[in-house]
Amino acid sequence: MTYHCHRCGAPLASAPPVECPACGYAMFLNARPTASVIIVDGDRFLALMRAREPNAGRWDLPGGFCDGWELPRDAAVREAREELGVAVRLDQFVGMYLGEYQFQGELLPVLDMFWLATIVDGQLRPDPSEATDHGWLPLRDPPSMAFSTMDSALPDAAAMLVRGH
């Protein structure tokens, strides 16, 4: 694969991080931020069956990429509204996890952020372009999820709830 400078278009010697030999622009490959919610009801959490690639047909958590200049907390609330048709209240912050996302033939680094959340308004109506199904799954014994960061965040969320934080 050939890489080019984002500023002047000159060919680059390698993948980022790299400095453009023509204009001196320093190019980096930074993780893209995402925001997701772990909606809990007792000892269960709400999961969606992904309708699209990557990982279509696997269990997923409501969430997605932060828009430019959007605060991650705002993105988490927006994504829940878009994907589920409900308003949520964000509760405890579970954590940030470094992962990967396959998009347009590229493997991108992502920084996935998760919050415990509660539905506060609306009727659950998952967007069919996002999910083919949904279900309440056991938080203490979750299935393998669509992304490894979710596999890490769910046990951390369960531990937080046990400790009462």
General description of the model:
The chain has 165 residues and is an alpha+beta fold. The chain is elongated. The N and C termini lie far apart (47 Å). It is built from two helices and nine strands. It has two domains: 1-30, no CATH class; 31-163, Nucleoside Triphosphate Pyrophosphohydrolase, CATH 3.90.79.10. It has helices at residues 72-84, 148-163; strands spanning 18-19, 26-27, 32-41, 44-50, 59-60, 63-65, 87-103, 106-121, 131-138. 18% of the residues lie in helices and 41% in strands. The longest helix is centred in the C-terminal third of the chain and has 16 residues, at 148-163. Keywords: Hydrolase. Residues 30-159 form the Nudix hydrolase domain. InterPro entries: NUDIX_hydrolase-like_dom_sf, NUDIX_hydrolase_CS, NUDIX_hydrolase_dom.
Kindly summarize this structure in a few lines.
With 165 residues, this protein is α+β, with helices and mostly antiparallel strands. Helix content is 18%, strand content 41%.
Class by alpha and beta content: alpha+beta
Silhouette: elongated
- Sheet-strand content, in percent, reads 35-45%
CATH topology of the largest domain: Nucleoside Triphosphate Pyrophosphohydrolase
Order of helices and strands: EEEEEEHEEEH
Number of strands: 9
Spans with pLDDT under 50 lasting ≥5 residues? Answer: none
What features would you highlight for this structure?
NUDIX_hydrolase_CS, 165 residues, NUDIX_hydrolase_dom, alpha+beta, NUDIX domain-containing protein, 18% helix, elongated, 2 helices, hydrolase, 7-stranded mixed sheet, Nucleoside Triphosphate Pyrophosphohydrolase, NUDIX_hydrolase-like_dom_sf, two-stranded antiparallel ribbon
